[in-house]
Design a protein that fits this description.
There is one protein chain. By secondary structure, the chain is mostly helical. About 80% of the residues lie in helices and about 0% in strands. Helix 1 runs antiparallel to helix 2. The longest helix has 15 residues. The termini are far apart.
Length: about 90
């Protein structure tokens, strides 16, 4: 799962979001409780224009990661902004 996540991160840097989504979907299937896969999948969905799916993945990330995760505050802020905009 970690390797899929790392490969996806590289693809995201290259703006290859569809390919990154495929890697991250594999990551989530292999390790459904690995929070970073959900965070990155949320980012990919946002880049692909599907804010509903992005929000679902961000919520899952927050549930799995907990407030001690370094990305927790930023993802929480993104999700709160999304909820207010709806």
């Amino acid at each position: 799962a970690e390797s899929y996540n790392e490969e996806a991160r590289q693809l995201m840097k290259e703006k290859q979001y569809v390919a990154a989504r495929e890697k991250l979907e594999r990551c989530v299937k292999l390790a459904p409780n690995f929070p970073d896969c959900h965070k990155n999948l949320g980012t990919v969905w946002a880049q692909l224009g599907d804010s509903r799916r992005a929000a679902e993945e961000y919520r899952r990330f927050l549930d799995l990661a907990g407030p001690d995760h370094p990305s927790y505050p930023k993802v929480k802020e993104i999700l709160e902004s999304y909820e207010q905009a709806r």
